[in-house]
């Protein structure tokens, strides 16, 4: 199956930020916090199982969809008798509903949407109660629909520490697709990490209305460097702004996967994602008849982490950033108040720590971030 279409995210903001209650960093919901019990599903043999994936972009994008497709390959390797199908570049329109319905019509026992499709997938799952559905970056928990995401803000915080130590201008440039919670979470975490080292450092963001647009990313990165940013980071599915960093002699940290090969002289590290173990665990539960819908965060060291440090990063800087990583892996959560937004409003009082769910639903920028709202 092959369906093409533009990549984008649903632009509606997530639900308002949840109540302020602390939870330790790195708390993992794998294999997931179950929703109310769904329709009992018995064990399925591999030869009778069909697992379908709907990808938001092409699997050759070098980023998000490529990483998810690695998960498809991991499922095939773990369960060689299973059947899998996938559709690339599923559009954010009624066509998505038709694609998910087609998966069901073809006999899929489990359907993964590798990005947020909201009502486009929920309408289908509501009408197919015997099929297991999981939506990446979603919000719905029903008897047969769950969601999963990566708590990438911890890795971004670590890279922010490195940014503050490497930057000479005290200005970080950030590229995002849209002003949505996942972008806010990444930018906020990067700056909070940087300000733990240099309280005066700032972050200027630019959104380009696409996750994969090398030309627009190049133009935005060039504008950021022209404005004095000497460290670039963001959430893009390709390495365009790393190439700008090389051409302009500044630093860059990437997203989705390691991209050292595209600019080793400017490469700092990357937020790297790995859905392989999660997909294998979900499919195993399906085959064993134990699957239940869940809300799952893949946490630092378990689905998301930083890449190896680039060759130009001084050892002392890498060590200082990794000291925080070690603390996080031991349970420390740096997202604690007081935290103000970029309009001066106190958002997180002193003594309060944000948990993953609260960060995940954040739709505001912290003090020192500009250009994102």
UniProtKB/TrEMBL annotation:
Domain ABC transporter substrate-binding protein PnrA-like span(s) in chain numbering: 51-296
Superkingdom of the source species: Bacteria
Signal in keyword set: yes
Keywords, alphabetical: Signal
GO cellular component terms attached to this protein's record: plasma membrane
InterPro entries, sorted: ABC-Purine-Binding (IPR052910), PnrA-like (IPR003760), TAT_signal (IPR006311)
Gene3D superfamilies reported in the protein's UniProt record: 3.40.50.2300
Pfam family, one: Bmp
This protein's name: Purine-binding protein
Originating organism: Novacetimonas maltaceti
